[in-house]
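Notes to self, Recombination protein RecR:
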Amino acid sequence: MDLYSSAAMTPDQLSKIAKEVGVSEKAVMHMDRRLRGKDYSLNAPLGTEDGEDSEWIDRVEDETASPEERMVYEDRQQKAQSFIAEALELLKPREADIIHRRHLSDTPMTLEALGHDLGILDPLAIAAEGSARDALSLLERAIALSGEKITEQIVQEMLGLAAGNEVEQLFTALNSGETAKLLHLYEDLYQRGRAPQAILKMLLEHASKHIKQQALGKENNFSVPVLHRLWQGLLKGLNDIERAPLDFQAGEVVLLRLSHLSQMPDLESLIHQRRLEPHTPSMISSEKMSAKGPETQASLNQANTTPSAPSLVENAPNLTSSPTSANFPSPTLPQSFEELVTFVQKQKEPLLAAQLKQDVHVIRYAPGHLVARLGEKASQDLWNRLQTILKKSFPETSWILETAMEEGAPSLVEQEEKVRTDKRKEALNQPLVKKVLDTFPDAEVKEESFMDAAASLSKGPLKTSGGGSEVEELIRRLGRLPGLGPRSGRRGALYLLTHREEALRPLIQALEKAYENVSECQTCGNLDTINPCKLCRDDRRLKNTVCVVETVADLWALERTQGYRGHYHVLGGYLSALDGVGPEDLNLRSLKERLDTHPIEEVILALNATVEGQTTAYYIADQLKDFGVKVTAVAHGIPLGGELDYLDDGTLSMALSSRKDLLSLS
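result:
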């Protein structure tokens, strides 16, 4: 402290103190000036020039409320107290007491203290397994669900800790099949705060108790098989409730299912009932009886009337009879492929039936033998799935499913389409329909009700133009082109048909030449009349740079700018999980082969600024990180001539993050 005793500190002293304290020299100088100055307090004299004897506290503004402000404050307090008193009178005593303890008391109680005061926090803490947050949440629920007075017994019943009579009544109603009483008791327990899972767990406890009592021979109210079946059903129902989005409704369904199950006889009862049934001789066909003759019939009658020898199992059922086959005859073999598809659909296999109708072209069919050609979209396991169903349904028949390369008959879907087309043509040829369409050329034919009921359109509503079927086909084909629609297709068809020589014929010739000569470049994927294309053959282009695009249209768009002089690579699409497009569907393998065989130094990813495009870009960048090439992407930001006020947030954010130095650009 001797350093501060001098009139001023030297620079060495400043530096030494700053280093020891760990602050700047300026801060040391500031502290030194403060320590050298006089002490000030609110009672210190001002020392004014006019000699007025006053202190600093005399200059401090008095913030004490004025009499008028105190009157306004007291009036507001009286009105608030009156309003609160009127509101408390409208509440139940329990609610008023809770609000008074929590908010209106001179010493407001916390929720935890309120639980201690009511004596209900201990069971709540046990139920919450020591979690303070869960215990307080349960306490709020107990306060909301309790009656006039909150007791520990009420909380225990809410948590299912008390062995009440309601669960026993619920258990009895469940086993007696009293559905209405069962649902009423379940809803009452739920309204009192018990969760559906807790109710089923209590039923499991009661079932376990009855099983133990039954095993010890202390009761015989329920049979052991019934109790074990109920136990399994409760376990399954508890799992269903935990997975269901609506637990209360799921609990109702589980209880109804168990109530119905309780009324069904167990296996022991079925065997006992079977033993009590009178024996009937095995059914013998009349043909066999006539072939055996009257002697055989007489011997059989004598055998049925003669007492039989003692059996190992008394009153055992006749195992030679086949009631199952008599009551449930095996299905007959489908006599046609259409019957086979119908049979598969009845086996609750709609997807398999749809594939059979759409992708199978029958060549030969006989019961047990199918030879067909499969379409391009047919799944590889089609025959295996069909064979599994046939073996299960016809175990005595060995089915043979063969695939051939012959054309075969049209698929069932194509046959149905032809039938619909014929019915539609037949309906459109009706005089009344023709007259209506001639009067209203732009009318939409949505349904025809002629001859054989109504035949719905397979490709949507048909818009007619007044021409023949060839004209309609031309309009339909043109309307399906990208960027065109039915109206544009109609106008284009009309222009082509009215300008045959100068428009239609050159178009036909151009399409024929393009169909015969244009192909996909094996190197980059561009469309050209030569292979490789002229872009890949151009020696003036940069050989160390490749620009990756999604489609040929993107390639042509970049080429029109004349701003890029390297090579291209067309992916043929982008990654899309919703559309089922994966990496194996893109032209990535040839890109990697080009990187291995060509001196490429940079790969430019010119993909769309969409979620799919950026996902594809990041995937390609990750795949190319081991090739030692530079991977870049086209810039995203404000377009030329764009205004900031009209741009979206994502574009502005990307533009700011990708900003450029103007001086370096100039």
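- The longest helix spans residues 67-90.
- The CA atoms of residues 373 and 407 lie 7 Å apart.
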